[in-house]
Amino acid sequence: MSRARCWRGAGGAFLGLLLCGVGILVAALLLRTFTLPSNRVIWQGPAVAEVVFTSEERQLLKRALVGAVRIPTVSVSEEEQNYTALAEFGEYIRKVFPRVFSSSIIKHEVVAEFSHLFTVQGADQSLKPYMILAHLDVVPAPPEGWDVPPFSGEERDGYIYGRGTLDDKSCVIGVLQALELMLKRGYKPKRSFYIGLGHDEEVSGHNGAMKIVERLQSRGVKLLFVLDEGLAVLDGVIQGVKRPVALIGTTEKGSITLNLTVNQPPGHSSMPPEETSIGILSAAVSRLERNPLPNMFGVGPEASMFEQLAGEFAFPLNVMMANLWLFSPIISRVLERTPSSNAIVRTTTAITIFNAGVKSNVIPRMARATVNFRIHPGQTVTEVLDIVRNTISDERVEISVLNSFDPLPISPFDESNFGYQTLQRTIHSVFSAAPVAPGVCIGNTDSRHFVNLTDSIYRFSPFKMKSEDLSR
Ligand SMILES: *[C@@H]1O[C@H](CO)[C@@H](O)[C@H](O)[C@H]1NC(C)=O
Ligand SMILES: *[C@@H]1O[C@H](CO)[C@@H](O)[C@H](O)[C@H]1NC(C)=O
Ligand SMILES: *[C@@H]1O[C@H](CO)[C@@H](O)[C@H](O)[C@H]1NC(C)=O
Ligand SMILES: [Zn+2]
């Protein structure tokens, strides 16, 4: 995920809400609270294979990850990536996972020079295949702030540290190592599946994931579901929830980046006009900050998340979460008070660049600012642009769109959805029955390029994250 961020709740503040006078409704509410469907194991489909590793296999897995972290596959921009490291990574996985590369049921293809596509042939060709994604590149690692050198893969207190351990080499190595070990045990899947490893996720996925999509599309492939990196098992991250809970990203926010430009006649500071380009632009930018886009709580999957996790909150939050029909106005207002939870209830506005002027006695002709909006799943690029134009409401401010994309469609997460339920079951079996709920990814992943191949895209990384891990 590009600078992955997980959602952090604002539950502490909920306690104050008790004062809102719930009185006689309590009985009805409690009834609803305790009759909400439990989200413990409900899927009755195929069982999840029990995973038992020998200690020797665990060592292999660890060494494979350390070796991967040591290859500095840094992406700086679409134009600047470490291609030497990406090529080295290709050689590395061939060496470390020999069965994957020699199995008669697996076809391996290099896509766009550095990305990898594996097709694992299932026994039953009538079953629709699924796909697992991960990416090889990492964001740059400035030397400051590291306890160990970022590309050392050093182990401390039972943890491996380094750039890419979380994002996303654990997933790359996890998937390949799992396949390698299953092949060793004579594994032959019934359902075919693909593994896609992109090489430029951190800088767009235009060369990696998108080329993989083109190749699959040219073959007429449709996918049952796609699994990519994303949310995780959150342990003590959502305030008010004690047990670890797993969130599966069922959508991603969209994004628009705008340049706002004001051009006014230049002049000398001794005879200033009433309004300068800087003044006009500042006022516009300030209007944007003072008039945030509307709170959309209840429109996206964030409401389902609270509803499904209701039983994990202590009283009275459990009652409130289970009764969003009544409490969502209050809950949505509490959520918007913390930047991290505000980000899940609305399209956010961030002024990121502001440029004007070069000399202390010259009034500049041009002032320009860049603003980035992350779009809530309940809105579109067009709707956000309309609102922004209305808010700025000044023709002297020229608005140009640098780039934009709509939020991703919300993937199904009902009880009959094969992909979601298989994931839920797998998570239960690996993470001691942690409750599973749908969530919103605030960052973006390679999986967004797959929308035309499936309606079921899930974003989940199998890590247990505590709040102190989020800043990592
Ligand atoms: C690119 O990766 C190679 C290893 O494959 C490494 O030796 C080199 O220092 C890296 N280049 C940069 C600019 O980090
Ligand atoms: C947008 O504005 C920023 C900040 O002033 C500037 O650096 C960038 O070149 C502008 N981009 C375009 C396409 O105008
Ligand atoms: C999906 O298909 C539509 C219609 O053909 C196309 O406009 C869009 O760019 C495609 N999206 C992706 C991510 O490939
Ligand atoms: Zn990532």
UniProtKB/TrEMBL annotation:
InterPro entries assigned: Bact_exopeptidase_dim_dom, Pept_M20A, Peptidase_M20, Peptidase_M20_dimer
Reaction(s) this enzyme catalyzes, per UniProt: L-phenylalanine + (9Z)-octadecenoate = N-(9Z-octadecenoyl)-L-phenylalanine + H2O; N-(9Z-octadecenoyl)-L-methionine + H2O = (9Z)-octadecenoate + L-methionine; (5Z,8Z,11Z,14Z)-eicosatetraenoate + L-phenylalanine = N-(5Z,8Z,11Z,14Z-eicosatetraenoyl)-L-phenylalanine + H2O; N-(9Z-octadecenoyl)-L-serine + H2O = L-serine + (9Z)-octadecenoate
Record-linked Pfam families: M20_dimer, Peptidase_M20
GO BP term, example: amino acid metabolic process
GO MF terms, alphabetically ordered: aminoacylase activity; metal ion binding; peptidase activity
Pathway(s) per entry: Lipid metabolism; fatty acid metabolism; Amino-acid metabolism
Keywords, sorted A to Z: Hydrolase, Membrane, Metal-binding, Protease, Transmembrane, Transmembrane helix, Zinc
Domain of life: Eukaryota
Membrane-crossing residue ranges in chain numbering: 12-31
Residue ranges of every copy of the Peptidase M20 dimerisation domain listed in the record: 251-395
Physiological role: Secreted enzyme that regulates the endogenous N-fatty acyl amino acid (NAAs) tissue and circulating levels by functioning as a bidirectional NAA synthase/hydrolase. It condenses free fatty acids and free amino acids to generate NAAs and bidirectionally catalyzes the reverse hydrolysis reaction. Some of these NAAs stimulate oxidative metabolism via mitochondrial uncoupling, increasing energy expenditure in a UPC1-independent manner. Thereby, this secreted protein may indirectly regulate whole body energy expenditure.
Family indicated by similarity: Belongs to the peptidase M20A family.
Protein name: Peptidase M20 dimerisation domain-containing protein
